[in-house]
Amino acid sequence: MRRPNASLSDAQRVLARISARVCMALSVAILVVAGARAYVVYPSVEPGYRIQLPRDEGSHPLFKTEWWYVTGWVEDASGAPLGFQLTFFRSRTGIDDDNPSRFALRQALFAHLAISDPKRGSLLHHEKSARPGFGLAEAAEGSLDVFIDDWQLRRDGDGYVAVAKAADLQLDLKLQPKAPPLLQGEQGFSQKGPSPSSASYYYSLPQLAVTGSIGIDGKDQSVRGVAWFDHEWSGAIVDERAQGWDWVGLNLDDGGALMMFQMRGTQDSELWAAAKWRAAGSSEGVSYKPEAVAWKPVRYWRSSRTGVRYPVEWQVTVGDRVITLKPLMDDQENDARGSTGTIYWEGAVRAFEGDKPIGRGYLELTGYAGKMRL
Amino acid sequence: MIAPLLIEAAITGPMRRSPGRTLLAVLAIALGVALGLAIYLINRSAADEISLAARSLYGLADLAIEAGAEGFDENLYPRVARTPGVAVASPVVEVEAKIVGRRGPLLVLGMDGFRSKLLQPAFAASVVGAGSDEDRSGGEPHDEEADDRFDSRSILLSASAARELQLQRGDFVEFQVGVKRERLKVSGVLPPAALQDFGGVVDIATAQWVFERLGKLSRINLRLATGSSPEQVKAALAELLPPTVRVTTPGQATDDALRLSRAYRSNLTALALVALFTGGFFVYSTQSLAALRRRREFAVMHAIGVTRTEQLLLMLSSSVIVGVLGAALGIVLGVMIARIGLSALGADLGAGYFRGLAPGLNVHIAEVTVFSLLGIGVAVAGALRPALDAARVSTASALKAGDITSGEIRPHGWTVLTLGALAAITVSLPPIAGLPLPGFVAIALFLIACVVAMPSVVRFVLRHAPRWRRIPYEIAIAQIAGTAKYATLSVSSIIVSFSLMASMAIMVTSFRDSLDQWTQKVLPADLYVRVGYVGQSSYLDESLAQSMARIPGVEHVEYNRFARVQLSPDRPALTLIARSMNRDHPDKTLWMMSTASNDVPSGALPVWVSEAASDLFAISAGDELRFELAGKQVVGSVRGVWRDYEHQNGAIVMGRDEYVALTGDRAVNTVWFWLDDGADIGKVGNAIRDLMPPGTDHDMRTPGELRKLSLAAFDRTFAITYLLELVAVTIGLFGIAAGISAQVLARRSEFGALRHLGFTRSQVATMLAIEGSVLGALGVIVGLLAGTVISLILIYVVNRQSFHWSMDLSAPVGLLAGLSAALVAAAALIAVVSGRQAMGGEVVRAVREDW
Predict the structure, then answer these.
(1) ipTM of the complex model
(2) How confident is the model at residue A181 (pLDDT cuts 50, 70, 90)?
(3) Using a CB-CB distance cutoff of 8 angstroms, which residues of chain A are in contact with residue B203?
(4) Is A45 touching B (CB cutoff 8 A)?
(5) Is the terminal CB of chain A with fewer CB neighbours within 10 Å at N or C?
(6) Rounded alpha-carbon distances, angstroms, from residue B523 to B516, B553, B564, B587, B705
(7) Which pLDDT score, from 0 to 100, does residue B363 have?
(8) B399 and B262 housed in the same domain
(9) Is B809 exposed, middle or buried (0-12, 13-18, 19+ CB in 10 A)?
(10) In a domain, B424, yes or no
(11) Helix (H) / strand (E) containing B522
């Protein structure tokens, strides 16, 4: 569940807030829309759907939510590590279906960009949102091409391009797959809770070779490294009992890939968990059931900004493997209360088996500042 | 050496001895300052409010793309957004939406919140509260609920709209679009600073859909990228945009909004300054009188060693005291008046320019300082001439007894001629920055010339005064002739205030009568039904309008449709009126001022332009006029210029058939009904109402009602000018009172002598009454003449330049006659009352005072 996590809910909140800003206020729910909305049917996520690429890279506008997520580790010319993350969210609003205006708000797009630079010690991040249309913001069907103004994530030949520009942060990267796509869950059907009704279609592209440049505070540097791409779409994802979730995706140094997550219920108890491990060179991964996956916090860090305490170091168990996750830096907290109202932690981590480094990836921790909601 | 004793003798003593006159002088200055400050403050509050309002419409935008009329194609939006240098492009659909059951439209802004939040964070901030509320109360909100937030059929109201409509979150606003009803739910109320207008914000897709603006935008607000040059971006945009779409800055929009009312506001300010001017003149006349009376005092001062400069300073300092007191009182009064005016009449003082604005008042120290200095300056300027004269008096002759009253009068032929010539030159100058400033200057010059000419006039009149063998009369005339300088001063103060007031009365009456005739001329039908107006959302379908023609009792009908036309990107849009026109006899429905003699060139459409359009765009009958309508270039041939008191930005009339052919727009805003003889207007009205969908908001009026309405609006607009006139006249009356009473009081010994000679008290009173009324009549007659001249300047120069409205001269004879009689009577009464007072004491003994 990853990305549905913090960022999604965050996205939804952005969306909600913004539309609240201009088009409405919440409790309005009622009359006007209620009627219209009753007929909005979101397709459900069923086991057995065959994900086909590149067709399924593109947007699935009938589904309620969808996201494309790139995270990765890069090094600049001096060898200093940087973590980066660029995400696009799409949300079907369920309204305006019969509004003939080209501005009709049937879909909304959001994007989030963050850089973890240990020299700064905290995240540098920006966000963008738009209603699709007029060629200024779109999520294309049939092939990966999603953009808001000059932020974009799209297929380019047999690779991908990720571009985002903000005042003090520019990212312009080429992503080249070095391994086949990894279908999560059962052939891409990824169950998110005890009930199969909370699930998503989910595949990943681990081990993407990254080249390009990242500019921070006007200083452009060429970088190279390795990234992880996730694409997930769904109607209803999160089990109602879930308080939050922890997710990690690791590019293993030997060429393998590991994704694992847990949904936490009250008292941080494990509600559901899953993992997928693909050894280097194989095309299929091994799925692990909830009982074979365990998350154990090792070290906590408390944010002086928000007072929220996050378990930033973990010992996770997948089958018989025990892996330690250590953050690139402690403060990778996203405090989006000002804009979207949520607080979560998402950042670059290293993975160790015993003392031996085995890979690098991204860890996401949500629900520590209160229940996460989508 | 100016000892305290001297100060007592020269300054405070005289003031104490004539507390009434000092008080009047203070009051005169105070009223002038108060009115000037009040009008200024009200105007400034309105201007502040308007620029705030414009700022909230444009947010942080650096530039805006706008088209007048009906907006522009939405396909421009992506092209504009992608122009290099543009960081944020926020599209806006602006609709003047008709609210069911309410006069006056609501300004509805359709916005894309994703874009506008970057430019108008105030709109966003306002709802954060609402959101968190809900977050708290939501408990376990659900995906579904979250999406309800997208309710696209809701509106955020501005604070002023919510207040006026008495609506709150959760209520519904019902709009009339065409004759359909559309309702939007109030999803929240914006903070007062977010949107100043009587308006609301909706989602842009909702606006396009609900208000029938699909495919159209009204504006795109632009934020430029850091470091990009506005000029370059403007140039790049200009290449992209069709000619009718313009690039503006938010400041320009404010200017447009203010321009409409600027002439009105500047005229009010000029009037307010007239009050200050008369106040200054009052100080002048009282000080002159005082200087005459105190010649001997001054001579004594010289004799004991006070230098002339010191004496001048002493005299001026007493007027400084008057000025300071008057200014202080005036500031307090002015702020009070402004406060009351704003709350009672609104920022436009009832003229109807700024609807829905509820400005607060804050006063800056600089403004207080300027108006205080103005008051003090006027007081000192008024006292300067008398003080200089007094300082020049020769000690020896002034020390002698008697002769305190004669003050010889000198003719100033050349000065009068020069002033008159200057006035004539200024009056023919064009307006400055659209304001009739030269007209006002000409009026001031002319008035000064009148005052300067008064001594000669008085002398001339007295020389030719009719003979009448009655002792009191002869003595009165002799007295006036002997004290010509006094007489001149008293008469002058009447002239200044009365001529101004007469001119205003004549101007207002001319305007009102012309308006009255105009309404009768342009409303030839028997009944009018209007649905919607320029740029508003409501209208009638043609088929509905046609069915109205078939109502029994209706002889025939004509249709009007209102639209907007942009003639120049730098000027506000004109109103286009499409209606059935009789090409050969346009004067049947328009009041033609001039008509073209040439033929309509082939390919050109006949159009008729209003006087304002003719003035503003320099178009005359016979000219060719090019404009864009519904995306098509139209070549019009101006068939004539018509008088119009309705559309201040100008209007163009064209035939409805041509309009429909060009635009395909068959909607109707006004239906004119001509009824059969003997038709029952009430029945026809009911039949019309029955035809319209229930609850359609419309205006049904007979010409009589329309006439009454427009005159009522006129009177409301001019109410404030009546008030200002009244104040000017009051100050003028102060002048008469002070002048005559000072003179009379100074003549105690003369009355004593007359009584010794056997005059009865009533004969003395009669004599004084005659003196008073002669002076009054002289002032009134000259004032009337001068007033007529000034009113001509007001009508043909000031008003024409301010509003581009011409009018026919028409004098309120009854009112002027009544006022004249009242003024003459007041002058006589004041003289008699002062005389009573003078004779009250030991009059007979007073003879002795005059050794």
Answers:
(1) 0.83
(2) very high
(3) 19, 22-24, 103, 105
(4) no
(5) C
(6) 11, 19, 22, 12, 11
(7) 78
(8) yes
(9) middle
(10) no
(11) helix B484-522
